[in-house]
Here is the input.
Amino acid sequence: MQTPPETDVHAELPRVVPAPFRDRTAEPVRVGVGGRLTLAGADPEAADWFTRSADRLHGLRVEAVRENAGVRVFPAADPAEFAAVAPATGVDPRPVPGADERHALEIAEDRIVVRAAGAEGAFRALTSLVQLLTVDAAGGVWAPRGTVVDGPRYTWRSLSLDVVRHWFTVQEVRRVVDLMALYKFNVLHLHLTDSQGWSLESRRWPELTRPRPDGTRRYYTREEFAGLVAHAAHHHVTVVPEVDLPGHTGAAFDAYPELHGDIPPIHPRARFLHPDSEAALGFARDVLEEFAELTPGRFLHLGGDEPFGMLHDDYVRFVEHTHRSLRATGKRAVGWQETARAGVLDGEDVLQYWIGAPDEFDAEGIKAQVPPEYHAVVDRAAESFRISPGDAPAAVRAGVPVLVAPNSRLYLDRSYADACADPAQENDRERLGLPAYEPITVADTFAWDPDDTAESAAPGACVAGVEAAVWGETMTGFDDLAFLLLPRLPGVAEKAWTRRRTEWAGHRRSLAAHRAFWDALGFGNHFRPAD
Here is the structure.
């Protein structure tokens, strides 16, 4: 019998791989030879994912066969087979809700059996398996012996990607989806509009995506976006696009100054769509309809954050309009936590909680750094942050589920407080991340639990799920995205997937086993913290 590899087989993995397989004493068994595995019974999407991932991550050749396969996928004969794992909780983001992701994975000598409640369960089981496999120099394929029943903690496990402040190509976003699938995320929240640009083609308002002076394009055509949605769906990831209204709309005003109507902005740097402007109301209705046309999923994000300079009553009226327009498209709304102030969200919608301590708004500090003409805007911004602790509780009282995404832990554009193991990355560590945010260690990012956040922000909340976010202000390319996402993203995945509390020491050891995966997926500039 061949000797198992000396490294990696026993390595602990993030608990997106089930707990029994984290045991460093688990016996490695051979499950394939000649750098080859055979697979039977998987649906086309799961088979394609497993085949491509085994090749990219391990150099393995996976062949589909009808019988005598090394890896066999069976439908569960009885849902009670998964009774050891509680069904996922939260809000189901999928176009057709209700799919069961629970599964059983059994690994023995020359035999791997997957039993799944459905296609998504089989997909998640094969995702666990591809993380567990290792290959020795002679082409022997190994995995730790064990059996487990597993399933997710939350039905909504999300990453928000800003493609406005830094635009990512279609191929780059597809790479992000591949990484998300490896860690069992199932929602890609695309932040597509902001003051810096508009990243989705509009046929009703074509000047939003006019070519740049140098002739380059920084938006997705409708056909490209549909392709991204299809690629994500192939990986059981639902795209939730965001059109951010009524603030964060500088790019819209640059393209169409008439959106102001007869109402001048409080300041050229504080522009927002006003409910007394008929042009603004029509614009909001049009773009929401366009986004909805391209969204197979049930949810569309209407923004609503940071309405700086806007009077409360005006903000309420505009959110009422956007919510009414969005619902008319047949979609349900996701709104940043400020939208709770309008009182229009209900149990069919989702509130996204994001304003978390210790990043309180320092109005006086900001006033000291800006000209006096900005001070009125700063005061209104300060008031918006001052009342923010009441947002999530108001939503809970209205029966609105809360998507937990606290900036204090889950905004991954936050600088690293860790020292660099690789001195060549020191410039990246100093350059990347919003300067206004206090740097945080990878360990501190991990030392967080969704239930803790929900209880402190909104006692009694129905947690819709978990979302990490990465914003593009400091990024200059895809390597910067890799640096900010990794190694923090697997920790978020673990908290969204498993109910068990995990110690940081074990998780830190586990991350080392995944660095080769990140390289293989094109995320080679991942941050390397010093131990």
